[in-house]
Design a protein that fits this description.
This protein is mainly beta. It has two domains: 237 residues, Lipoxygenase-1; 196 residues, Double-stranded beta-helix (4-Layer Sandwich), CATH 3.60.160. It is 5% helix and 34% strand. Strands 13, 14, 15, 16, 17, 18, 19, 20, 21, 22, 24 and 27 form a twelve-stranded antiparallel sheet that branches. Strands 1-10-9-3-7-6 form a six-stranded mixed sheet, with no helix packed on it. About 15% of the residues have low confidence.
Length: 544
């Protein structure tokens, strides 16, 4: 019987089936919508480092045929064949995606699914509906990923933009549309088929020498393998006409110095028969023309930039306009939301995004730390109970928490502190309550006594987190992680966290003879850490 997965569920392939020759079926539909369903073969960095493993309708199989697109069959909108034991070692993840071709958004789709069939029997199915999405135009449905063994994860993560944006997210390149060629010129290598009226940006798939060219589909302007074309004239570098320099009589006096080479390039030696300081192609005695077509720009000045124009400002564009173009979209592009398909995703050093629907587990966060959320999210007070309040007041490790549940994305921050997600997999970490921003509700936490005093917000105590999940630690500035050695000491006001297996004791450098002298260094009381190799401490560049 097939296992029903929810978004965020994961399992080893070996727990689902003993086979490695798998059928992957995707069913997705919506009124008036057309979909492109693809598979991305990603490397260990989750990047498309080899374009031959971008499997779509115009490149239906990988070189060794470990991944093949089969088309619609058995009630599935699209299907694939995946042979896990034939996938090369450089491929660590297969991401199956669906994107809308044309207008529309994912909230319009009806009930759909991604399923795995092995030996003619369906072993797992992840079902989804349009109510789980909003304005996204793409969705990452499910992944095969290699983590010591091959595993499957139900992702269900929406993604803004279409197939081109998804390809760029994975590090691929999108070929720009070629301008309309003159009637007598041959079509560019990556041009869409002539019958396509409004082709989408074409993704050039690498040409397989022995594989026949697949027939292009009318829904997307992806190019067939390029055919030999007659040589074309070199493209013109600038649209403006060449500026002709006026003739001038030969100048007398010393030879002008050779202009410096562009930054980062070796000095250019004059060509045979060329006078030092003379530009290539310049007639002897002719004055150096202004920077124009074919002329190098002055030192530190971009090519073709009029003198006096600040560097980095394109000609004809007002100052203050972002390099990517004019308008709000270009100005705000660097600050777009980063959606990686993971449960916890740092948006920058001070902002954390958590996907609540992934894994089905709520989170506990510090009250007032939510700065924005999307979707159907419920916020409720998380009480510590009478005993918890007594312990928190007595130890200084009281945390005022809220419970975040539902489906959506919650963004967390607090006073511009640096945030660091720490994933626990059965191990433990000790963190002062003052340095905890949020954590998975599945984690177990308790107050732990140490043999000393002075840790931030906790006198003789700290918080210990154990289990499987993520805890987000906040620091003032960027911290440093140090291994625990027999001589590891840390300022009690700067230490943030340490491995739960470490032993912490109070260390004092006060000596009786110092009482005879006024004042002290201010570093007389520290925390000493002991433990086996593999233990660590985290210290921030700030003393509370």
């Amino acid at each position: 019987m097939a296992r029903e997965f929810q978004r965020g569920h994961k399992a080893k392939i070996s727990d689902l089936t003993a086979g490695t020759d798998l059928y992957v079926g995707v069913q997705i539909a919506g009124p008036g919508l057309t979909f492109d369903i693809s598979c991305f073969g990603l490397d260990a960095n989750e990047q498309l480092s080899d374009d031959r493993y971008f499997i779509f309708f115009n490149q239906p199989k990988s070189p060794e045929e470990s991944i093949q697109q089969l088309g619609a069959q058995s009630g599935d909108t699209e299907s694939f064949r995946v042979t896990l034991d034939r996938i090369p070692a450089n491929i660590h993840r297969l991401s199956f995606t669906a994107t809308i071709d044309g207008a529309g958004q994912m909230s319009q789709v009806g009930p759909g699914y991604i399923r795995i069939v092995a030996g003619g029997e369906e072993v797992v199915r992840y079902a989804f509906t349009g109510s789980e999405f909003t304005t996204e135009r793409a969705v990452m449905l499910g992944d095969f990923y290699l983590k010591d063994v091959w595993r499957f994860a139900a992702v269900g993560q929406g993604f803004d933009g279409g197939l081109d944006a998804l390809l760029k997210n994975f590090g691929g390149e999108v070929a720009e549309e070629q301008p309309a060629a003159q009637p007598q010129a041959a079509a560019p290598s990556f041009a869409p088929p002539p019958q396509a009226a409004q082709p989408a940006p074409s993704f050039g798939a690498p040409t397989a020498p022995s594989a026949p060219a697949p027939a292009p589909a009318p829904a997307q302007g992806f190019a067939p393998p390029p055919q030999p074309a007659p040589p074309q004239p070199a493209p013109q570098m600038y649209a403006a006409p060449t500026v002709a320099a006026p003739m001038a009589p030969p100048q007398s006096g010393p030879v002008p110095p050779t202009p410096p080479s562009p930054y980062g390039q070796p000095p250019q030696q004059p060509q045979f028969g060329q006078v030092p300081g003379q530009m290539p192609g310049q007639v002897p005695g002719q004055a150096q023309p202004p920077g124009g077509y074919g002329q190098p720009a002055p030192y530190g000045q971009p090519q073709g930039m009029p003198p006096g124009m600040p560097p980095g400002v394109p000609q004809g564009v007002p100052q203050g306009v972002p390099p990517g173009g004019a308008g709000l979209k270009a100005a705000l592009q660097p600050y777009r939301e980063a959606a990686t398909g993971q449960r916890w995703t740092p948006q920058n050093q001070q902002l954390m995004r958590v996907e609540l629907g992934m894994g089905g587990t709520p989170i506990l966060a510090r009250q007032g730390s939510m700065v924005m959320y999307q979707g159907k999210v419920d916020f409720s007070h998380k009480g510590a109970g009478f005993t918890g309040r007594i312990v928190g007041n007595a130890t200084g490790q009281e945390m005022e928490l809220m419970r975040c549940s539902g489906r959506g994305q919650v963004f967390l921050a607090e006073n511009g502190a640096h945030l660091h997600p720490i994933e626990l997999q059965g191990d433990g970490i000790c963190v002062s309550a003052e340095n905890v921003l949020a954590f998975d509700e599945s984690l177990q936490y308790e107050v732990r006594r140490i043999e000393g005093h002075g840790i931030p917000g906790g006198a003789l105590f700290t918080m210990q987190f154990q289990g499987t999940g993520t805890v987000v630690v906040k620091t003032h500035g960027i911290p440093v992680v140090l291994p625990v050695t027999p001589t590891t000491f840390a300022d009690a006001n700067a230490v943030v966290a340490w491995s739960s297996a470490s032993q912490v004791i109070l260390s004092s450098q006060v000596r009786l003879r110092r009482n005879a002298y006024p004042g002290h260094s201010g570093e007389t009381v520290n925390l000493q850490f002991r433990g086996a190799p593999g233990n660590f401490i985290v210290v921030q560049p700030y003393e509370v």
